[in-house]
Amino acid sequence: VKVSEIGEFKLVDLISKIVNSTRTTDVPWQNLLTGIGDDCAAWKGDTSIQLATVDALVEGIHFNFDFCTWEDLGWKALAINLSDIAAMGGVPRYALVSLGIPGDTDIKNVTAFYRGFTRCAKQFATAVVGGDTDAVPRVSATVTVLGSMGEQVNLLARGNARPGDLIAVTGCPGTAAAGFRMLTRGINMGKTASKQLSQAFLRPLPRIAEGQILVKTGVRSGIDISDGLLSDLRHICKASHTGAVINAENLPINNSVARYFKEDAVSLALSGGEDYELLFTAPPEIMLKAERQLACPVTVIGTITREKGKIFVSYNGKRLEPQVEGWEHFKSK
Amino acid sequence: VKVSEIGEFKLVDLISKIVNSTRTTDVPWQNLLTGIGDDCAAWKGDTSIQLATVDALVEGIHFNFDFCTWEDLGWKALAINLSDIAAMGGVPRYALVSLGIPGDTDIKNVTAFYRGFTRCAKQFATAVVGGDTDAVPRVSATVTVLGSMGEQVNLLARGNARPGDLIAVTGCPGTAAAGFRMLTRGINMGKTASKQLSQAFLRPLPRIAEGQILVKTGVRSGIDISDGLLSDLRHICKASHTGAVINAENLPINNSVARYFKEDAVSLALSGGEDYELLFTAPPEIMLKAERQLACPVTVIGTITREKGKIFVSYNGKRLEPQVEGWEHFKSK
User: How do residues A304-314 score in pLDDT, each as one tens digit?
Assistant: First the structure.
């Protein structure tokens, strides 16, 4: 059986099973809180919970240099990993990068990559402490970020959603995917709109402060919507043994996306991916507190239900069960 | 200027300069002990020194499936990172792996990869806690290992060698390179020799226990010889502002390597690379203690000198200044 036949998510399940079958009584395993299958790995450190995440960007798969500069790449390679720390409610601390580049790469491009990477690191108070370089035919950047929960003893975990929880999202999902479509299809729009959309795709801002506020407010269930809102909601429902209903009319749509992508806007918001916004669930009273505490736009878009694995979208008075849900490696759709 | 024109080591210097120019007063930077340029990054954790390292294996660059099985690859991808923890004298704790594979990869190969990876993890008491999978044309495994110095407050650092220190090496350098040559050139030898040499290349054993013993014994300067003995000795000399003399007659050569590679044995030992043995330096009295404490073969092979950057090899009564020194990405030799 080929990997492309089972798809990324089943592959991760398989890997998770193999790895968990090899657990031992050694200290690191005993201290582990969350292994493969959440945004970050998490374990009990000496005095606080420690977090670690790794994510790669590969030329031709996740980006290409037709529209992405080396500086964009550096920024994004770090930002998507910081977003995983944000999705646990953690504080990022240290970053390592394994950079694969062809031998004929100009060193000014390498410099631009690290300019983008270190700017992002600076903005989110992360120290760049190590790495590795390799000569490879296609550019790839594999980044590890280590973080901590500080004084917090709870995580934004995927498995903590409960029936009756409200579902909310930060920012405007679909904006990054609209930016990608604009860049790849050469869609013309006003300067401001164009900048906003390309920034959303090329220079995502991880919701670091927001994730920490959510944890402090008592929110226990969250994820970043890098795979697409529905796809990541499915991760939450699966880990929490619940279902969900999304009210598509409530989805917050960026003005420029609404204007230039009209009917596609809702589908971009549901399945676009690459937004690095936070999707989280909480009982109504905690949700109210979270909405008050967060400085960024936050919108309640649905409810967690008891129907295991069932995700419905209510739209134009209809209740739909969506099929195509978002980004997945390997599987053709 | 192209990366291939400056080579890997100058590229790392360049990256190190860019990154260090962006240091801030943020907590992670303040706690940092060792950034880019040693075997691991190291920083002050809440109660002990924390370590992190990342290293990638790429198909066609570091291995190919003509002689390397998927299980070998899994083992080695983790082992080479554990070796970086060993080279600081640390205790490995957690591993994350970013695995890039083509979509048409059979899942039994993925299973074999994780079998090798988790076996190595188990043997060295490391928990496999996270990762990432990507669809890419060529197989690559980028591994991060996190570790700790436990109760130790000193590291095996590259910059701590002092003139007058003796230089020693564990095991028999050149064995892995001989194994690689045997596998790629199809050299016939006895079953035992063949197994020993291929294991040295495909299933290296990181010197985890040995690194910890060295630190406890008071050794402060060390590195693993993954790039080749001379090349890694140069890293030590550069960071310590010293020179070195190696007595080639003293180099410990594996019996099978001596038998099947005769005159090449010394050059394999000096420049072969991929051995994952430890090279370390210490004043004579500490070296004596270290030799007594270590259970593995350990051989004194030279002395650290005052002549900055000068590395000499004494061989057959001659004092040579070697040119080709070992593995380096990007640069053609």
Answer: 999 999 999 99
Q: Which residues from chain B sit within 8 angstroms of residue A138, using beta carbons?
A: 136-137
CA A272 centroid distance within chain = 12
**Residue B123's Cα: distance from chain center in Å?**
18
Residue with tokens 């589908």: A267
Give me the residues of B, 93-152, that contact A with CB < 8 A.
93-94, 96-98, 100-108, 110-111, 114-115, 118-119, 121-122, 125-138, 140, 142, 144, 146
- Residue B178 φ then ψ, to 5°: -65, -40
pLDDT, one tens digit per residue, over A59-104 is: 999 999 999 999 999 999 999 999 999 999 999 999 999 999 999 9
Contact A18 B133 (CB under 8 A): no
Q: Give how far B309 is from chain A: nearest CA, Å.
A: 23
CA distance A218 to A287: 9
What single-letter amino acid sits at B138? R
**What would the DSSP string read from start to end of B50-102?**
EEEEEEEEEBTTTB-TTT--HHHHHHHHHHHHHHHHHTTT-EEEEEEEEEEE-
What tokens were used for B34?
Answer: 């060792």
Structural tokens at position B196 = 């020993």
**Three-class DSSP category at A219:** coil
Find out whether A272 and A326 touch, Cβ atoms under 8 Å. Answer: yes
Token digits of residue A4: 């492309």
Rg (CA), chain B: 19
The answer, yes or no, to whether ipTM is higher than 0.95 is no
- In angstroms, the CA B189 to CA A114 distance is 48
Q: List, as one string, the DSSP characters of A28-63.
A: HHHHEEE-BTBSSEEEE-SSSEEEEEEEEEEBTTTB
Residues in a beta bridge with A315: A318
Instruction: In whole angstroms, give the CA distance from residue B231 to residue B327.
Output: 8
Dihedral pair phi/psi, residue A31, rounded to 5°: -85, -5
Beta bridge partners of B124: none
A6 touches chain B (CB under 8 A): yes
CB contact, 8 Å: B17 with chain A?
A: no
* Greatest Cα-to-Cα distance within chain B, rounded to the nearest angstrom: 60
Name the band, by pLDDT with cuts 50, 70 and 90, for residue B332. very low
